[in-house]
Structure formats: structure tokens, C-alpha cells
Amino acid sequence: MTRQVTLKDIALRAGVSTAAISQALNDRGSLRPETRERIKAIAAELGYQPNKYAAALRSGRTMSVGFVLPESVELDLSRRSALHRSRHIGALVSAAAEQGFTVTMLPASRPDLLRGAQIDVVYFAEVAADDLLLREAVARGIPVATNDLYVDTERSITVRTGYDEAVRAALGLLEAGGAERIGFLVDDAGAPRDRIGESAYRAWSTVRGRTPLVAHVDAEHGALPRRVGELRDAGADAIFSFAEEGPAIYLQLEEMDFVIPRDMQFVALCTTDCAVNTRLGVTHVCVHPELAPAAMFQALSTVRDGVEPDIVDLPWEIVRGSSTR
Fold first, then answer.
1. Contact, 138 vs 153, CB < 8 A?
2. Full domain range(s) for residue 97
3. What is the tens place of the pLDDT at every residue in 18-46?
4. Residue 259 belongs to a domain
5. Total domain count for the chain?
6. What pTM was estimated for this model as a whole?
7. Mind listing the pLDDT tens digit for each residue in 270-290?
């Protein structure tokens, strides 16, 4: 096993103190530029790799992020929710590994676990304002990162995933295409992202003086044809499907010989199946919640210093298909 190169090894080769080595590698102190560059060159030659964990201990950091599992996880066993959680956890683990962090799972029902937890930030992918673990973290001064919920404290990061902006953009696209009564398909599980989407749709409808046409779809989409039929019977001339994913819904209706009428415009929310949507000709609005963990880590250094709350907006885009005219 190869021994790790230390500051002392570099100091012996360079003929200076370990303090000078530290100053050079961290771009601090008043060393002459040529001395600083010579030390860096020797460090590179020896294959020196800084110990992130030792540096973290010196700065009071733990290099660990806590991921909060909502209380609803045990009750919500739908395929869609399970996929959403697994994708988000996978994205968090990957982003954490890039930064040298580990991930600790925290059940939302156990705020007491924060008393002895060694965590740099608590991350909430889905959270309500009255969440007890969120309140406990804020009270203890632990930095928190939340998706789509603003927390009014200096040590917080709000990641706006773009669900509400995507809804307004999709509805605007359908309206521009001539739709006068837009139906809204949404899952009935009551996940925060679904509440955001439905609230955005209802607000958009109210501003325009339109009567909302909302159809809630069960987790397995068994009632999907009936719900689409109800929207059609209620006079909907367009549908925005917030019940992910567009291809699954479109193909399921096709398999049941219930193809969405060609005179009805259709736009789908998309988080993963953009290529399939495009191949099917389904116009879709793409959001990227999987980018939230990386965005959180980018903002973490500022928030850890307690400068001010940080707000990060994730990208989203509309991709036109052949089904919206």
C-alpha cells in the first residue's frame, strides 16, 4: 500500500517549514511568488493529495449531509413516488461524493436525532413549512436546504425546481394554440410537487377567469381513461398532464384504445423521459429536480458562513412535439 504524501515530505524536499508549505498550497501568507510556485511544483511531483477530512475537522465541518425521508414514505408505495425518491437519493449521493461528503438518512419523524448528529447541512427534497425536523434544525442553527420552500433564516438554501414556472409556461403554450378550456391531470397522492402544480394551475385559471378542470389520477393510473373522459365531457379542449410521465400516460391510453382525440391538445410534464416524449411527438415541459443536490452543494459554502439565505433556480424548458397545434 502506497504511503500518502504529507506536508512534511514536501517540506523536506523544498527545504522549508511545513507552515510555509501550508501557506503555499492554500495561497495564503506572504511567500514570494517564485517560492510558492516551486512548492506547488514539488507537491505535484510527489503526488500530494490534500486530506479533505482533516481540513474539514480543522474548520469545524463534518463533510456529511443529512437527507430527510418524509413521514409519508412508508404509506406511499406508488411506483412513481418510489422512482422519484430513488432518483433524488441517487443524485444526492453522486453530488455528495463529488464534494467528498457522506449522506446520512434521517426520518422526518425523529427530530431528536439532530441532537447528536454531526451534519453540515440537512437536505429536504420534499417538505412542509410545519415539518418538525426542519424546525429543530433551524433552532439548532444547522444549515438547511429545501426544495420549493423558502425558510427565512440566514443559514438556508432554497432550491426552486421550476414546477410552478413549468405549469404556467405549458398552460400559456396551450392557450396560445387556441385552447379555451384546459384540463389538468394530476396524481392524487398529495406529494408537495403535485400540490405546487395544482396550485399553479388553479391560480393561472383564476387570473384568467377560467373554471378549473382538475382530474386526480390514482397511483397505478387504472382510472386514467375515465378521468380523461371526464375532462373531455366537461368541455376540455386541451390537457396538461402533470401526472408524470407523459409517455407512460400517452402509451397507456393507446393500449386501452383510448387515444387522446387529435383535436385535443396535449402537453406533459417531464422529468426523465424527454427523449421518449420527443419520439412520440408529445409536447413536454421538462424540469430537472435531479440537479437540486448539486445546486445545493454549490451554495453551501456561502450559507455555512451565515451571510444570507440563498435562492437557486433550476433550469426548465419546453420541447414542442407534433401533438400540440
1. yes
2. 64-161+290-314
3. 888 888 887 777 788 888 899 899 988 88
4. yes
5. 3
6. 0.75
7. 887 777 777 777 888 999 999
